[in-house]
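Q&A log
Question type: sequence-to-structure
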Amino acid sequence: MPIEQALSAEQAAELGPYRARWKAIGRSTAPADRDAAEQGVRLAYQAAGLEPPARIVWCESPLALARLAGQMSHDDGCNVRSGLVDRLRRRIASRIEARVHPKVLAAVDSAVNPADLLVAAAADVVIRSVPEQNLSVLGQLRRTGLSFSMVRQALAAPRGFSTRAAGPHDLSWLGAYDYLREVLGLRGETEPLRGLMQLATSVGWLLPHEHTCWLAERPNLLCGDARDRLHHPGGPALRYRDGWSIWAWRGVEVPRWIIAHPDRITLDAIDAEVDVQVRRCMIEIMTPERYVALGGATRVAEDETGILWRRNWLAADAWAAVEVVNATPEPDGTRRHFFLQVPANLRTAREAVAWTYGLRAEAYAHLVLRT
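Response status: OK
Response body:
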């Protein structure tokens, strides 16, 4: 029978600190503790039933890690991420499930390991930016000297960087086990995870193979907006120690110059941009007010609620904003104008203003009348 069916008040009080601790670990921009990380590698390999790797290779970024790993040879062996992380996690989970009530496990996991959108966004952009190594069997044989059996194993394994490497988002689940270990006292059951925990708190990314384990430093900059989207108004949102950077505006990856040199954003530059999301970011950085003032959009509707502006490029590619006037005057008696971006299929200013409140035009009209 499970020994824990409900958390005590003291145990429940520890959930918040463990959540904060592991959130800080996932978002850390401190230099990796290389000695601790290498010790964690050896412990993790041992817990997974593997011999410690003969080589531990450090990289300044996940991009550098992927490039080095792309030059692997038969001396490095096959990828062991599945055994090192996934199978070990399942094995320890079965032990814990025999000791702890399922409701307690669910409560601990949801409280300590909630989804971190900023860490997930950083991992996603890393995975999308890393080049894949898609070599043919003949190419691998000629280029690396791998045996036929090793090539066959490699081709049978998942090929994506996300399935062969592990980043902070892949190891965040360790926070719940850290809580179970330290607060509920399940040290024996969680002992095999000690190496992975040490790794997670000491390093950025890892790409483990049988005889070589590649480790990447953490970023030295990670910035997001209030909604935890990658964002920085004046510099890169994600940057690693070798200078590899990602520039992003409200969750959209954009070319560096758009943020570094906003003065170069012109109507012609906006029209020349083929990526719809990047184009809208350019308008936001220029500001919709200036975009309209420069003649970028056309007035399509006006009523007592405001003015609807629109710019059409293609049938299904358009931008729109509604211009509204602040009801409260400024100290000098003037009233500020605001431009709110809205879906381009709206037809009237009233409909657009209502949309900003999450209402239909008819419901918004009744609300205004009652006010």
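Response note: The first strand starts at residue 55 and ends at 59.
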